[in-house]
Amino acid sequence: MRINKEGYKIICISGAVCVFIFWLIYHLLVSDSNISLLWVSAVLLLLFWFFIVAFFREPRRVRIHDADLVFSPCDGRVVVTEVVKETEYLKEEMLQISIFMSVTNVHMNWVPVGGTVEYFKYHPGRFLVAWHPKSSTENERTTTVVRMASGRKVLFRQIAGLIARRIISYMKVGEPVEQNSVCGFIKFGSRVDVLIPKDSELLVEIGDPVVGSQTPIARLHKI
């Protein structure tokens, strides 16, 4: 199992904390009469550390290219499919598809379409639960707009949740990006919104599970 570089520091720190807690238990709480406490503590601390390691896993996936399709930017479950008025940059009605990532999902993010990064902005904000309707506009988030070779524009947002407290984005304005290349990481539970032209064909429904960079979520209308 590969580990994403964004997890190296947290994995090392959490491992050190687990070792320190085990040392405290061993020296302060354990006696000959309750040696079982030591073994139970060791198992629980090890399971906790393995959970942290697994959270930052980096799966090997085939990179798919299809200019007519929009792919899921993350692992998770579809929680929103609706037409909304996008007010930050595109200023038009768009079809929004939102995907919620639980703490058990892979938390890497991928670019849903290929093209050139036309717009990027980081927004500080609140930490409402990621499925809350206002999380798209009030939570800490990033907004990225990719202009495709056809001229169509696709916007996607990385959104922090109640537990997620750090968003990583590798997007830079003016740089070309390949479809389904890695675009960032969100740490510990979150959501990604994808906004596409409203005449696109929706390929998923609310409640559907999706796999980042592998599941097509919409088909763009041919120009």
UniProtKB/TrEMBL annotation:
The name this protein goes by in its record: Phosphatidylserine decarboxylase proenzyme
Molecular function (Gene Ontology), one example: phosphatidylserine decarboxylase activity
Function recorded in the entry: Catalyzes the formation of phosphatidylethanolamine (PtdEtn) from phosphatidylserine (PtdSer).
InterPro entries according to UniProt: PS_Dcarbxylase (IPR003817), PSD-A (IPR033175)
Post-translational modification summary for this protein: Is synthesized initially as an inactive proenzyme. Formation of the active enzyme involves a self-maturation process in which the active site pyruvoyl group is generated from an internal serine residue via an autocatalytic post-translational modification. Two non-identical subunits are generated from the proenzyme in this reaction, and the pyruvate is formed at the N-terminus of the alpha chain, which is derived from the carboxyl end of the proenzyme.
Main location group: membrane
Gene source species: Alistipes onderdonkii
Top-level taxon of origin: Bacteria
Gene Ontology cellular component list: plasma membrane
Site positions (Cleavage (non-hydrolytic)): 189-190
Cofactor descriptive note: Binds 1 pyruvoyl group covalently per subunit.
